[in-house]
Design brief:
With 120 residues, the chain is mainly alpha-helical. The protein contains five helices and no strands.
């Protein structure tokens, strides 16, 4: 789905497509399981636009989408603290392979791929 968007900057068109895809899938799950409402933790990231995410969520789910900005009231800081306490893994990118490249992680990814080939 991100084809032809790999050169878009972070928070650009590619991210908008990704937000929509993730929220559509979440809405489909909401319908299939009969839940009353849904939201997303994507808004906890200081690198993600809560306004854009919430707008897309409302377009998809209407009143069933709970508008939230989890980074408010030091939400991001709190999430980091809890992750440390509970020893949770926190990745330093959103999950998109293209954002890894823009974050300077393409060399790390290439090294990890080489390492897995060498060890197998």
């Amino acid at each position: 789905m991100a084809q032809n968007l790999e050169h878009e900057p972070e928070s650009g068109k590619r991210c908008q497509v990704c937000y929509r895809l993730r929220l559509e899938k979440t809405y489909e799950y909401l319908i299939s399981c009969g839940a009353d409402a849904f939201t997303t933790t994507l808004t906890i990231s200081p690198h993600k636009s809560a306004q854009a995410i919430n707008k897309i969520g409302q377009e998809i789910g209407g009143e069933k989408f709970l508008v939230r900005d989890f980074k408010k009231k030091e939400g991001f800081k709190r999430a980091v603290q809890l992750a440390k306490r509970w020893r949770l893994y926190r990745q330093d990118y959103c999950g998109c392979i293209y954002s890894m490249r823009q974050g300077g992680r393409d060399e790390q990814l290439a090294g990890e791929r080489r390492g897995s080939k060498d060890s197998g």
